[in-house]
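Many introductory courses stop at the sequence. We go one step further.
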Amino acid sequence: MVAACGASAPLDGRVRIAGSTTLLPMISQLSADFAAQSPLVALDVRMTGSSDGAVLFCDALVPITGSSRPFNERELASCASSGIAFTRLLVARDAVALMVDAGSTAVQCLTQEQIYALMGPESVSVSRWSEAGQVIDGAGIGLPNEDLTVVGPGAGSGTRQTLIDLAIAPLAKERDATPALRPDYVIEPAEQLIRSSMLNHQGALGFAGLATASGWAQTLRLLSVDFGQGCQRPSSAAINSGDYPLSRELYVYVNLAAVAGNPTELAFVDQLVSSEGLATAERVGSVALTDQERAAVRAHWEAARDQGTSDAA
């Protein structure tokens, strides 16, 4: 596809991408593959968070952004006020992964109640794993009497918001509490820094996107979670089936007018949605779409590219 978009002349110019740190492994690999084919292209990749990327995208400062969640109403309104016609492309699936030190064997699986009691808005007084029962009766059963430090990405992270939406908010609503994480958790500005931060804190409980966390198997161990249907590990099969309760979809948003006016960026998106491009997800630890889904994404992109009109987000 790249050759077709670039005609007989080699591609040059610039590709500008921002957005989710969860998508950084996939975007980095795609960028490397694209650069290998088009060495004259300058790739400007700024993956600092889904919210940061949405701001840049809706302010027309970047034409392509990755997001580990759908745009919210405020972001959609911002794009609309800027007159940006865009399309949203499903590029992979992922999950929020909960992690502990690989040498720790005391915790294998956390229930939703335990996640809330350790990480939720009422857990500020919980300084040891076993104290989870101070928040929800029985939540501390089976948890070690060890110091607890929660480590994860900050407010601009789609991973953080997904954890709140799927694990914290349902119980917070029942308990008339604010759907939020404990305010004293250790915030890292990028998911890639969470591993080293966890290793510096005894008894750390961390969370990150699976695509990022899957590369840390030698030092960190992924936990199973139980939301009432038994303990589920964040495997590809469980994520695709929806059995892993912290599963999510990963998206790339494209400013149609901006990309249409830049053959190099158009070629990048074409390569992204190619069968090989979408298969990159599996190469970097995310969950790749099925063949049927990949074909649907390509058809969606081709229709949006040709029509140049926004689709629903």
